Predict the 3D structure of the following.
Amino acid sequence: MVVMKDARLTRRTRRRRAALSGFTTLDVIDMDTIDVTNLNRQFLFRAEDVGKSKAETAARRVRERVRGCAVNAHHGRIEEKEDGWYKQFDIIALGLDSLEARAYINAVCCGFLDYDEDGNVDPATIKPLVDGGTEGFKGHARVIVPGMTPCFNCTMWLFPPQTTFPLCTLAETPRNAAHCIEYAKLIQWPAERYGETFDADVVEHMTWVYTKALKRAETFGIPGVTYAHTQGVTKNIIPAIPSTNAIIAAACVIETLKMATMCAKGMNNYMMYVGTDGVYSHTVEYERDPSCVVCSPGIAHALNANATLEEFMASIVAAYPDSLAEPSVSFGGKNLYLRGVLESEFAENLNKPMIELMNGRKEGLVVVNDKKMKKTSMRLRLSLK
C-alpha cells in the first residue's frame, strides 16, 4: 500500500509510476517478501532480491531511479500501524490482496469522519482512497471519498463469494488437483499436526501440504499437483498478468494525480477492465448505502419513548447481529455504557429510560462501538416515539 502526504501511492508498479508522476513524498507498507514468482511481472525486483522485503526493495529502487523522490519503506502488516499514522497522509492508494485488508483500511479512514447534526461531513476529515486490483486478465480501479461516495463496505456485494469445496467431495471423490490440496490442508493437517496452525508463508508447512496432496493425487490418478499450484490453492492466488497490472496501476496513478492537482474531473467511481473482451473497460457509478454501518452519518433507529438503555442495546444487537454483540454506547460525548473493566460503573444506567439519558431529547445521534466492528463506530439517529 502506498500513502502520500504533502500533496506530493501500495505496491510494485504503482510505486514507480507515482514517483514518475511527480509525487515526491511517499510511504509504502507491505508485509511480504520477494518470491521468484514476483519477478516476471514488474521491474523493481531482481533475482538477487528474492527473500528480501518488497517494501524496502521497491523503495530503494525508486529512490535510485527518480531523483529527489523520498520513499519511506515500512515492512509489516497494515494493522500494526496506529490509526493516527494513516491520518497524516493526504491520499492513500491500495493494492491489497484481500477483501479483509481493504475493509480494514476503509474502516480506518471512515473512522476519521466528523459529521454535523444535519449529517454533513466535515471535508477536513476526509482521507481519499484510490483502490486497484487485478485477477488474471481482469482488473478494477476505484475512487473512494469517505463520507461522499460509496465506501468499500457499501459495495461489498460486488464481490463474488469465495470458492469453497464440500468436505464430502474432498474426502471421498476428489476430481482435480485442487481437491487433493484442500484435503491435505483442511483434513490431513489438523489430524496429523493437531494444535499447530497452518501458515502458508512457512516453506516447511507448504512443502508438507504439497507432499501429502501429491500422494493423494497419485492414489486417485489425478494429475496437476505441483508446488506452485499448491501455493496458488492454499493462498487463493490467481496468476498475475503483467499488462493487466500495468493498466490498473496507471489508472490508479492518474486518478491520484487528478485528485491531488484538480487537473481534470475524477472517476465517479468504479472502473472495470476486462482484457479478454478486446481490451474492454467501462466506468460505473454506484450509489452510497444510507444504512452503511461504516460510513453512514447516522442510521435511523426508532424506539419506544419509555425504553431503557438495556432495551435499546438489545434492540440494536437484534437489528445488526453481524456488527454488534456487546455494544458500548455514548451520547453527546458522554459515555452511557462501557464494556470492560469500567462496566460496573455504568450498570446503574441499564434500567434508566433513554429519554432521561438523552437529557429529555426525543431525537439525537447515539454512537455505538463494538469489538465486532473493530475499527469504526456505528452512528444511530435515534428517535423516541
Summary: Residues 213 and 219 are 10 Å apart (CA to CA).
